[in-house]
């Protein structure tokens, strides 16, 4: 499936298309990024998302934060450059699965970047040989990165201590939830009042049920309370937290076999329309190429 269908809306494909079509001199990249920084309190981009690897960029108050590092170090470096980012100030990890940390060890070899993770997640990764400037916290705790506020919240997934995040600037809030088998009331409370949201929409229930590649046990794992969010679950979450200032929803971790970007987008748009929120932009992240920026 192409990453940029010809009928994609301009809000979803603008900057990346410009970067891909025209080689931008480094000085212009810096100028463009500085001007974006000045005009947006929080912006985010998805470097890649899916079972092949996940990584998100958030930029606010002059800080660039990488959330997860599940692409190869080479791809991380390339895609960060494609998004015109010159340095990463901090890395947040959601959990220790390979599709979220695959490139971390090599990426850190030439960089001294603090990594924020729960104590349990950091422990597992340390035991797997990842030496870093660890900044640990307990799920549910918040912390500051300069003048940005980051809140963590527990999610249900088959990892040691998985979390989602809310990144708050003075005026805008970005929520990040992926790899969650079930939406709890506490997740709903955490994600109220977001201006932007990166939301897992892993599978369509009918497509998963009719899939012939996966054994029953894998299907059970995916759809369990400690698996992944379906389109239906993601849409229900959106209906619970949608509000008039929600601007961008980017769907991620879509299964290549058991979901479809147009189906997932339509499911979310319909759910939002029911609440009178038909103007919210809904897009899908892509495995093979970065997408963004979305400005809040
Ligand atoms: Zn996972
Ligand atoms: Zn994952």
How would you describe this protein?
The chain is 34% helix and 24% strand. It is built from eleven helices and 14 strands. The protein has helices at residues 10-21, 26-39, 73-82, 98-101, 104-109, 119-127, 185-190, 205-210, 216-223, 231-241, 261-274, and strands at 42-48, 55-60, 63-67, 90-92, 114-118, 133-137, 142-145, 148-154, 163-168, 173-177, 196-200, 248-252, 281-284, 291-295. The chain has a seven-stranded mixed beta sheet. Helix 10 runs parallel beside helix 11 (261-274). It is globular and about 45 Å long. The chain binds zinc ion (2 copies). One zinc ion is lined by residues 95, 97, 157, 159, 179.
What's the name of the CATH homologous superfamily? Ribonuclease Z/Hydroxyacylglutathione hydrolase-like
CA-to-CA gap between the ends?
Answer: 28 Å
Global shape: globular
Strand content: 15-25%
As laid out across the biggest beta sheet, the strand order is 6-5-4-3-2-1-14
Which cofactors or ions or other ligands sit in this model?
zinc ion
Structural class: alpha/beta
What is the chain-wise order of helices and strands? HHEEEHEHHEHEEEEEHEHHHEHEE
Radius of gyration: 18 Å
Any idea of the CATH class? Alpha Beta
What is the secondary structure topology, with strand pairs?
Layout: H1 10-21, H2 26-39, E1 42-48, E2 55-60, E3 63-67, H3 73-82, E4 90-92, H4 98-101, H5 104-109, E5 114-118, H6 119-127, E6 133-137, E7 142-145, E8 148-154, E9 163-168, E10 173-177, H7 185-190, E11 196-200, H8 205-210, H9 216-223, H10 231-241, E12 248-252, H11 261-274, E13 281-284, E14 291-295
Parallel strand pairs: 3-4, 4-5, 5-6, 10-11, 11-12, 12-13
Antiparallel strand pairs: 1-2, 1-14, 2-3, 7-8, 8-9, 9-10
Helix pairs in contact: 10-11
């Amino acid at each position: 499936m192409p990453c940029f269908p010809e009928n994609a809306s301009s809000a979803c494909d603008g900057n990346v298309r410009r970067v891909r079509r025209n080689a931008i001199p480094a000085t212009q990249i810096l100028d463009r990024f500085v001007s974006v920084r000045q005009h947006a309190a929080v912006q985010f981009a998805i470097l890649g998302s899916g079972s092949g690897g996940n990584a998100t960029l958030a930029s606010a108050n002059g800080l660039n934060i990488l959330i997860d590092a599940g692409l190869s170090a080479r791809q991380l470096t390339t895609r960060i450059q494609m998004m015109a980012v010159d340095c990463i100030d901090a890395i947040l990890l959601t959990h220790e699965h390979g599709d979220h940390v695959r490139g971390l060890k090599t990426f850190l070899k030439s960089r001294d970047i603090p990594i924020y993770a729960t104590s349990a997640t950091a422990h597992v990764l340390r035991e797997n040989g990842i030496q870093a400037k660890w900044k640990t916290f307990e799920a549910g705790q918040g912390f500051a990165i300069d003048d940005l506020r980051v809140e963590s919240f527990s999610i249900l997934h088959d990892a040691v201590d998985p979390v989602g995040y809310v990144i708050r600037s003075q005026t805008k809030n970005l929520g990040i939830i992926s790899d969650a088998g079930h939406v709890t009331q506490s997740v709903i409370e955490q994600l109220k009042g977001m201006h932007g949201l990166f939301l897992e929409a892993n599978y369509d229930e009918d497509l998963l049920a009719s899939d012939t590649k996966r054994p029953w046990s894998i299907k059970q794992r995916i759809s369990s309370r400690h698996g992944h969010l379906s389109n239906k679950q993601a849409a229900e979450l959106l209906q619970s937290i949608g509000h008039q200032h929600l601007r961008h929803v980017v769907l991620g971790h879509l299964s290549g076999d058991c979901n479809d970007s147009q189906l997932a987008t339509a499911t979310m748009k319909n759910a939002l329309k029911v609440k009178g929120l038909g103007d919210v932009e809904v897009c899908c992240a892509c495995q093979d190429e970065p997408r963004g920026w979305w400005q809040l």
